[in-house]
Amino acid sequence: xxxxxxxxxxxxxxxxxxxxxxxxxxxxxxxxxxxxxxxxxxxxxxxxxxxxxxxxxxxxxxxxxxxxxxxxxxxxxxxxxxxxxxxxxxxxxxxxxxxxxxxxxxxxxxxxxxxxxxxxxxxxxxxxxxxxxxxxxxxxxxxxxxxxxxxxxxxxxxxxxxxxxxxxxxxxxxxxxxxxxxxxxxxxxxxxxxxxxxxxxxxxxxxxxxxxxxxxxxxxxxxxxxxxxxxxxxxxxxxxxxxxxxxxxxxxxxxxxxxxxxxxxxxxxxxxxxxxxxxxxxxxxxxxxxxxxxxxxxxxxxxxxxxxxxxxxxxxxxxxxxxxxxxxxxxxxxxxxxxxxxxxxxxxxxxxxxxxxxxxxxxxxxxxxxxxxxxxxxxxxxxxxxxxxxxxxxxxxxxxxxxxxxxxxxxxxxx
Length: 415
Known about the structure:
By secondary structure, this protein is of the alpha/beta class.
Protein backbone atom coordinates (compact mmCIF):
# COMPACT_ATOMS: atom_id res chain seq x y z
CA UNK A 1 0.00 0.00 0.00
CA UNK A 2 1.29 3.43 -0.91
CA UNK A 3 1.30 5.99 1.85
CA UNK A 4 2.37 9.61 2.23
CA UNK A 5 2.60 12.30 -0.42
CA UNK A 6 2.71 11.62 -4.14
CA UNK A 7 6.12 11.73 -5.75
CA UNK A 8 6.77 14.50 -8.27
CA UNK A 9 6.80 11.85 -11.03
CA UNK A 10 3.35 10.60 -9.94
CA UNK A 11 2.02 14.15 -9.85
CA UNK A 12 3.34 14.87 -13.34
CA UNK A 13 1.85 11.61 -14.63
CA UNK A 14 -1.55 12.44 -13.15
CA UNK A 15 -1.45 16.04 -14.43
CA UNK A 16 -0.31 14.94 -17.89
CA UNK A 17 -3.14 12.41 -18.03
CA UNK A 18 -5.70 15.07 -17.15
CA UNK A 19 -4.07 17.51 -19.55
CA UNK A 20 -4.27 15.00 -22.41
CA UNK A 21 -7.94 14.33 -21.65
CA UNK A 22 -8.66 18.06 -21.46
CA UNK A 23 -6.91 18.60 -24.80
CA UNK A 24 -8.89 15.78 -26.40
CA UNK A 25 -12.15 17.22 -25.12
CA UNK A 26 -11.29 20.76 -26.23
CA UNK A 27 -10.07 19.50 -29.60
CA UNK A 28 -13.43 17.89 -30.34
CA UNK A 29 -15.45 20.86 -29.07
CA UNK A 30 -13.44 23.65 -30.71
CA UNK A 31 -14.47 23.25 -34.39
CA UNK A 32 -18.15 22.86 -33.44
CA UNK A 33 -18.07 25.95 -31.23
CA UNK A 34 -16.28 28.13 -33.79
CA UNK A 35 -18.63 27.00 -36.57
CA UNK A 36 -21.71 27.75 -34.46
CA UNK A 37 -20.41 31.17 -33.52
CA UNK A 38 -19.68 32.06 -37.15
CA UNK A 39 -23.31 31.36 -38.03
CA UNK A 40 -24.51 33.65 -35.26
CA UNK A 41 -22.05 36.37 -36.28
CA UNK A 42 -24.07 36.89 -39.45
CA UNK A 43 -26.35 38.97 -37.24
CA UNK A 44 -23.50 41.01 -35.70
CA UNK A 45 -23.68 44.78 -36.13
CA UNK A 46 -20.61 46.81 -37.13
CA UNK A 47 -18.45 48.15 -34.31
CA UNK A 48 -17.77 51.83 -33.85
CA UNK A 49 -14.09 52.17 -34.55
CA UNK A 50 -11.38 54.82 -34.58
CA UNK A 51 -9.50 55.20 -37.86
CA UNK A 52 -5.82 54.36 -37.51
CA UNK A 53 -6.15 52.51 -34.20
CA UNK A 54 -4.68 48.98 -34.26
CA UNK A 55 -5.16 46.46 -31.47
CA UNK A 56 -2.39 43.86 -31.24
CA UNK A 57 -2.74 40.67 -29.19
CA UNK A 58 0.49 39.18 -27.84
CA UNK A 59 1.07 35.47 -28.57
CA UNK A 60 1.15 34.74 -24.83
CA UNK A 61 1.36 36.31 -21.42
CA UNK A 62 4.75 37.84 -20.66
CA UNK A 63 7.47 35.33 -21.36
CA UNK A 64 10.86 35.61 -23.02
CA UNK A 65 12.37 38.70 -24.60
CA UNK A 66 11.00 37.35 -27.89
CA UNK A 67 7.41 38.00 -26.77
CA UNK A 68 8.40 41.47 -25.64
CA UNK A 69 10.25 42.12 -28.89
CA UNK A 70 7.17 41.30 -30.98
CA UNK A 71 4.94 43.60 -28.93
CA UNK A 72 7.48 46.44 -28.80
CA UNK A 73 8.16 46.02 -32.52
CA UNK A 74 4.43 46.13 -33.28
CA UNK A 75 4.01 49.29 -31.22
CA UNK A 76 7.02 51.00 -32.79
CA UNK A 77 5.95 50.08 -36.34
CA UNK A 78 2.37 51.30 -35.75
CA UNK A 79 3.67 54.60 -34.39
CA UNK A 80 6.06 54.92 -37.36
CA UNK A 81 3.05 54.54 -39.67
CA UNK A 82 1.28 57.38 -37.76
CA UNK A 83 -1.13 54.89 -36.19
CA UNK A 84 -2.47 54.45 -32.66
CA UNK A 85 -1.45 51.19 -30.94
CA UNK A 86 -3.68 49.33 -28.45
CA UNK A 87 -1.65 46.48 -26.93
CA UNK A 88 -3.43 43.43 -25.51
CA UNK A 89 -2.15 40.40 -23.60
CA UNK A 90 -3.51 37.11 -22.33
CA UNK A 91 -3.20 37.10 -18.55
CA UNK A 92 -2.10 39.98 -16.37
CA UNK A 93 -0.62 43.21 -17.69
CA UNK A 94 1.54 43.63 -14.58
CA UNK A 95 4.56 41.54 -15.71
CA UNK A 96 4.73 43.65 -18.87
CA UNK A 97 4.69 46.86 -16.83
CA UNK A 98 7.44 45.49 -14.59
CA UNK A 99 9.62 45.04 -17.69
CA UNK A 100 8.97 48.57 -18.91
CA UNK A 101 6.22 47.86 -21.46
CA UNK A 102 3.57 50.50 -20.82
CA UNK A 103 -0.01 50.54 -22.04
CA UNK A 104 -0.75 46.81 -22.07
CA UNK A 105 -4.32 45.71 -21.31
CA UNK A 106 -5.55 42.23 -20.41
CA UNK A 107 -7.56 40.37 -23.04
CA UNK A 108 -8.99 37.84 -20.57
CA UNK A 109 -12.24 39.65 -19.77
CA UNK A 110 -13.61 39.17 -23.31
CA UNK A 111 -13.17 35.38 -23.25
CA UNK A 112 -16.50 33.59 -22.89
CA UNK A 113 -17.64 30.63 -20.84
CA UNK A 114 -15.54 27.53 -21.51
CA UNK A 115 -12.59 29.74 -22.49
CA UNK A 116 -12.75 28.84 -26.17
CA UNK A 117 -14.50 31.84 -27.71
CA UNK A 118 -14.67 35.64 -27.54
CA UNK A 119 -17.78 37.53 -26.44
CA UNK A 120 -18.63 39.94 -29.27
CA UNK A 121 -20.27 42.56 -27.03
CA UNK A 122 -17.34 42.58 -24.64
CA UNK A 123 -14.90 43.00 -27.51
CA UNK A 124 -16.73 46.18 -28.57
CA UNK A 125 -16.30 47.51 -25.05
CA UNK A 126 -12.64 46.50 -24.84
CA UNK A 127 -11.40 48.20 -28.00
CA UNK A 128 -12.55 50.59 -30.70
CA UNK A 129 -9.64 49.59 -32.94
CA UNK A 130 -10.27 49.64 -36.67
CA UNK A 131 -7.75 46.83 -37.12
CA UNK A 132 -7.22 43.79 -34.87
CA UNK A 133 -3.98 41.86 -35.26
CA UNK A 134 -3.25 38.53 -33.58
CA UNK A 135 0.47 37.77 -33.40
CA UNK A 136 0.66 34.04 -34.01
CA UNK A 137 4.39 33.44 -33.36
CA UNK A 138 4.77 29.68 -32.81
CA UNK A 139 1.42 29.22 -31.01
CA UNK A 140 -1.05 28.45 -33.82
CA UNK A 141 0.06 25.01 -35.00
CA UNK A 142 -1.01 23.20 -31.85
CA UNK A 143 2.29 23.04 -29.97
CA UNK A 144 0.86 24.89 -26.94
CA UNK A 145 -2.73 23.68 -26.74
CA UNK A 146 -6.00 24.13 -28.60
CA UNK A 147 -7.94 26.56 -26.39
CA UNK A 148 -5.69 29.52 -27.16
CA UNK A 149 -5.95 28.82 -30.91
CA UNK A 150 -9.74 28.64 -30.72
CA UNK A 151 -9.87 31.90 -28.77
CA UNK A 152 -7.82 33.61 -31.46
CA UNK A 153 -9.88 32.17 -34.32
CA UNK A 154 -13.01 33.36 -32.52
CA UNK A 155 -11.50 36.83 -31.93
CA UNK A 156 -10.62 37.24 -35.60
CA UNK A 157 -14.01 35.98 -36.77
CA UNK A 158 -15.79 38.41 -34.42
CA UNK A 159 -13.57 41.27 -35.60
CA UNK A 160 -14.34 40.52 -39.25
CA UNK A 161 -18.08 40.29 -38.53
CA UNK A 162 -17.91 43.68 -36.80
CA UNK A 163 -16.48 45.27 -39.95
CA UNK A 164 -12.92 45.54 -38.67
CA UNK A 165 -9.73 44.57 -40.48
CA UNK A 166 -8.73 41.22 -38.96
CA UNK A 167 -5.19 39.88 -39.28
CA UNK A 168 -3.45 36.70 -38.15
CA UNK A 169 0.17 37.76 -38.56
CA UNK A 170 3.77 37.05 -37.66
CA UNK A 171 3.44 33.30 -37.27
CA UNK A 172 5.55 30.21 -37.85
CA UNK A 173 4.05 26.86 -38.78
CA UNK A 174 5.70 23.49 -38.22
CA UNK A 175 5.69 20.64 -40.69
CA UNK A 176 3.46 18.52 -38.45
CA UNK A 177 0.68 20.75 -37.13
CA UNK A 178 -1.89 19.06 -34.90
CA UNK A 179 -5.20 17.95 -36.38
CA UNK A 180 -7.26 19.95 -33.86
CA UNK A 181 -5.30 23.13 -34.65
CA UNK A 182 -5.91 22.66 -38.38
CA UNK A 183 -9.60 22.01 -37.76
CA UNK A 184 -9.91 25.28 -35.84
CA UNK A 185 -7.90 27.31 -38.37
CA UNK A 186 -10.09 26.06 -41.24
CA UNK A 187 -13.00 27.85 -39.52
CA UNK A 188 -11.35 31.26 -39.96
CA UNK A 189 -13.56 33.79 -41.74
CA UNK A 190 -12.38 34.26 -45.36
CA UNK A 191 -12.07 37.99 -44.65
CA UNK A 192 -9.29 37.37 -42.13
CA UNK A 193 -5.89 38.12 -43.64
CA UNK A 194 -3.01 35.72 -42.94
CA UNK A 195 0.67 36.74 -42.97
CA UNK A 196 3.39 34.23 -42.07
CA UNK A 197 6.81 35.39 -40.91
CA UNK A 198 8.80 33.11 -43.22
CA UNK A 199 8.32 31.48 -46.60
CA UNK A 200 8.52 27.93 -45.22
CA UNK A 201 5.54 28.59 -42.93
CA UNK A 202 3.72 30.40 -45.71
CA UNK A 203 3.95 27.36 -48.00
CA UNK A 204 2.83 24.96 -45.24
CA UNK A 205 -0.25 27.02 -44.35
CA UNK A 206 -1.24 27.49 -47.99
CA UNK A 207 -1.09 23.72 -48.44
CA UNK A 208 -2.95 22.99 -45.18
CA UNK A 209 -5.70 25.63 -45.44
CA UNK A 210 -5.91 26.16 -49.20
CA UNK A 211 -6.16 29.92 -48.89
CA UNK A 212 -4.03 32.98 -49.60
CA UNK A 213 -1.20 33.63 -47.15
CA UNK A 214 1.15 36.62 -47.33
CA UNK A 215 4.63 36.72 -45.83
CA UNK A 216 6.70 39.34 -43.99
CA UNK A 217 9.69 39.22 -41.60
CA UNK A 218 9.27 38.95 -37.83
CA UNK A 219 7.97 42.23 -36.43
CA UNK A 220 10.48 42.20 -33.55
CA UNK A 221 12.92 43.67 -36.06
CA UNK A 222 11.11 46.99 -35.61
CA UNK A 223 11.78 47.25 -31.88
CA UNK A 224 14.13 50.13 -31.13
CA UNK A 225 17.24 49.36 -29.05
CA UNK A 226 17.70 51.03 -25.67
CA UNK A 227 20.73 53.05 -24.63
CA UNK A 228 21.02 52.53 -20.88
CA UNK A 229 23.83 52.68 -18.32
CA UNK A 230 24.13 48.88 -18.60
CA UNK A 231 24.53 49.12 -22.39
CA UNK A 232 27.15 51.86 -22.03
CA UNK A 233 29.02 49.86 -19.41
CA UNK A 234 29.16 46.90 -21.78
CA UNK A 235 30.23 49.21 -24.61
CA UNK A 236 33.20 50.35 -22.53
CA UNK A 237 34.18 46.71 -21.87
CA UNK A 238 33.92 45.80 -25.57
CA UNK A 239 35.95 48.86 -26.57
CA UNK A 240 38.70 47.88 -24.13
CA UNK A 241 39.20 44.45 -25.76
CA UNK A 242 42.10 43.94 -28.13
CA UNK A 243 40.15 41.76 -30.57
CA UNK A 244 36.57 41.32 -31.79
CA UNK A 245 33.76 40.48 -29.36
CA UNK A 246 31.31 37.63 -29.84
CA UNK A 247 28.06 37.57 -27.91
CA UNK A 248 26.80 34.06 -27.15
CA UNK A 249 23.08 33.64 -26.35
CA UNK A 250 22.28 30.23 -24.81
CA UNK A 251 18.84 28.68 -24.37
CA UNK A 252 17.97 26.58 -21.33
CA UNK A 253 14.88 25.22 -23.14
CA UNK A 254 17.30 22.96 -25.00
CA UNK A 255 17.61 20.87 -21.85
CA UNK A 256 14.17 19.42 -22.63
CA UNK A 257 14.95 18.95 -26.32
CA UNK A 258 15.28 15.23 -27.03
CA UNK A 259 15.99 14.70 -23.34
CA UNK A 260 19.39 16.38 -23.53
CA UNK A 261 19.40 17.64 -19.95
CA UNK A 262 20.90 20.84 -18.59
CA UNK A 263 24.36 19.32 -18.03
CA UNK A 264 24.75 18.47 -21.72
CA UNK A 265 23.46 21.89 -22.78
CA UNK A 266 25.86 23.64 -20.40
CA UNK A 267 28.77 21.52 -21.58
CA UNK A 268 28.12 22.26 -25.24
CA UNK A 269 27.79 26.00 -24.73
CA UNK A 270 30.97 26.00 -22.66
CA UNK A 271 32.77 24.25 -25.51
CA UNK A 272 31.53 26.80 -28.05
CA UNK A 273 32.38 29.72 -25.77
CA UNK A 274 35.88 28.49 -24.97
CA UNK A 275 36.56 27.75 -28.64
CA UNK A 276 35.63 31.33 -29.54
CA UNK A 277 38.02 32.57 -26.85
CA UNK A 278 40.81 30.42 -28.26
CA UNK A 279 40.04 31.78 -31.72
CA UNK A 280 40.78 35.31 -30.51
CA UNK A 281 37.29 36.56 -29.67
CA UNK A 282 36.38 38.16 -26.38
CA UNK A 283 33.03 36.71 -25.33
CA UNK A 284 29.90 38.00 -23.61
CA UNK A 285 27.38 35.32 -22.61
CA UNK A 286 24.00 37.06 -22.66
CA UNK A 287 20.74 35.78 -21.16
CA UNK A 288 17.80 36.54 -23.47
CA UNK A 289 15.19 35.33 -20.97
CA UNK A 290 15.40 36.52 -17.36
CA UNK A 291 12.66 34.32 -15.88
CA UNK A 292 13.74 31.78 -13.28
CA UNK A 293 12.21 29.07 -15.45
CA UNK A 294 13.56 28.01 -17.97
CA UNK A 295 16.80 29.27 -16.40
CA UNK A 296 18.82 31.18 -19.00
CA UNK A 297 20.41 33.42 -16.36
CA UNK A 298 21.66 30.44 -14.34
CA UNK A 299 22.87 28.77 -17.55
CA UNK A 300 24.79 31.89 -18.61
CA UNK A 301 26.45 32.14 -15.21
CA UNK A 302 27.39 28.45 -15.34
CA UNK A 303 29.05 28.90 -18.72
CA UNK A 304 31.40 31.64 -17.50
CA UNK A 305 31.97 30.24 -13.99
CA UNK A 306 35.63 29.46 -13.45
CA UNK A 307 36.72 31.34 -16.60
CA UNK A 308 35.17 34.77 -16.06
CA UNK A 309 37.77 37.47 -16.31
CA UNK A 310 39.40 39.86 -18.69
CA UNK A 311 38.00 38.38 -21.92
CA UNK A 312 34.85 36.53 -20.75
CA UNK A 313 31.85 37.96 -18.91
CA UNK A 314 28.11 37.36 -18.62
CA UNK A 315 25.38 39.96 -19.15
CA UNK A 316 21.78 40.02 -17.93
CA UNK A 317 19.74 42.73 -19.71
CA UNK A 318 16.72 44.20 -17.96
CA UNK A 319 14.44 43.81 -20.97
CA UNK A 320 14.35 43.16 -24.71
CA UNK A 321 15.22 46.72 -25.70
CA UNK A 322 18.30 46.72 -23.50
CA UNK A 323 19.27 43.32 -24.90
CA UNK A 324 19.03 44.71 -28.43
CA UNK A 325 21.25 47.62 -27.43
CA UNK A 326 23.83 45.15 -26.09
CA UNK A 327 23.68 42.87 -29.13
CA UNK A 328 24.51 45.84 -31.36
CA UNK A 329 27.98 45.94 -29.76
CA UNK A 330 29.07 42.52 -31.04
CA UNK A 331 31.28 41.71 -34.00
CA UNK A 332 29.21 38.51 -34.27
CA UNK A 333 26.36 36.91 -32.32
CA UNK A 334 26.01 33.16 -31.75
CA UNK A 335 22.46 32.43 -30.61
CA UNK A 336 20.13 29.58 -29.75
CA UNK A 337 17.26 32.06 -29.32
CA UNK A 338 15.71 33.17 -32.58
CA UNK A 339 14.66 36.64 -31.44
CA UNK A 340 18.18 37.45 -30.31
CA UNK A 341 19.11 36.67 -33.90
CA UNK A 342 16.38 38.99 -35.19
CA UNK A 343 17.56 41.73 -32.81
CA UNK A 344 21.12 41.38 -34.09
CA UNK A 345 20.44 40.94 -37.81
CA UNK A 346 17.95 43.82 -37.93
CA UNK A 347 20.83 46.09 -36.86
CA UNK A 348 23.25 44.66 -39.39
CA UNK A 349 25.10 42.55 -36.80
CA UNK A 350 26.21 39.19 -38.28
CA UNK A 351 24.78 36.13 -36.55
CA UNK A 352 25.21 32.36 -36.33
CA UNK A 353 21.98 30.58 -35.41
CA UNK A 354 21.68 27.29 -33.52
CA UNK A 355 18.29 26.08 -34.74
CA UNK A 356 16.27 23.49 -32.86
CA UNK A 357 12.64 24.23 -33.81
CA UNK A 358 12.75 24.69 -37.59
CA UNK A 359 12.19 28.45 -37.56
CA UNK A 360 15.67 30.02 -37.63
CA UNK A 361 16.39 29.42 -41.32
CA UNK A 362 13.16 31.03 -42.43
CA UNK A 363 13.92 34.19 -40.44
CA UNK A 364 17.61 34.33 -41.34
CA UNK A 365 16.70 34.15 -45.05
CA UNK A 366 15.28 37.67 -44.83
CA UNK A 367 18.80 38.90 -44.03
CA UNK A 368 20.61 36.65 -46.53
CA UNK A 369 22.11 34.86 -43.54
CA UNK A 370 20.55 31.38 -43.67
CA UNK A 371 23.97 29.96 -44.59
CA UNK A 372 24.96 30.77 -41.01
CA UNK A 373 22.32 28.52 -39.44
CA UNK A 374 23.39 25.26 -37.82
CA UNK A 375 21.16 22.50 -36.50
CA UNK A 376 21.54 22.05 -32.76
CA UNK A 377 20.39 18.45 -33.15
CA UNK A 378 23.26 17.68 -35.51
CA UNK A 379 25.81 18.55 -32.78
CA UNK A 380 27.92 20.93 -34.90
CA UNK A 381 31.59 20.79 -33.99
CA UNK A 382 33.32 23.69 -32.25
CA UNK A 383 35.53 24.03 -35.31
CA UNK A 384 32.51 24.46 -37.59
CA UNK A 385 30.89 27.02 -35.28
CA UNK A 386 34.09 29.08 -35.01
CA UNK A 387 34.57 28.88 -38.78
CA UNK A 388 31.07 30.26 -39.37
CA UNK A 389 31.48 32.97 -36.72
CA UNK A 390 34.72 34.13 -38.36
CA UNK A 391 33.14 34.01 -41.80
CA UNK A 392 30.05 35.96 -40.71
CA UNK A 393 32.15 38.61 -38.96
CA UNK A 394 34.47 38.84 -41.96
CA UNK A 395 31.63 39.18 -44.46
CA UNK A 396 30.14 41.98 -42.38
CA UNK A 397 33.49 43.70 -42.11
CA UNK A 398 33.97 43.55 -45.87
CA UNK A 399 30.55 44.91 -46.81
CA UNK A 400 29.82 47.15 -43.81
CA UNK A 401 26.77 47.03 -41.58
CA UNK A 402 23.46 48.24 -42.89
CA UNK A 403 19.86 48.16 -41.71
CA UNK A 404 17.67 45.93 -43.90
CA UNK A 405 15.46 47.92 -46.26
CA UNK A 406 12.20 46.40 -44.99
CA UNK A 407 12.78 47.84 -41.50
CA UNK A 408 12.34 51.30 -43.02
CA UNK A 409 8.76 50.63 -44.08
CA UNK A 410 5.73 49.41 -42.11
CA UNK A 411 4.95 45.68 -42.02
CA UNK A 412 2.73 44.71 -44.93
CA UNK A 413 0.01 43.50 -42.55
CA UNK A 414 -0.45 47.05 -41.27
CA UNK A 415 -1.25 48.37 -44.75
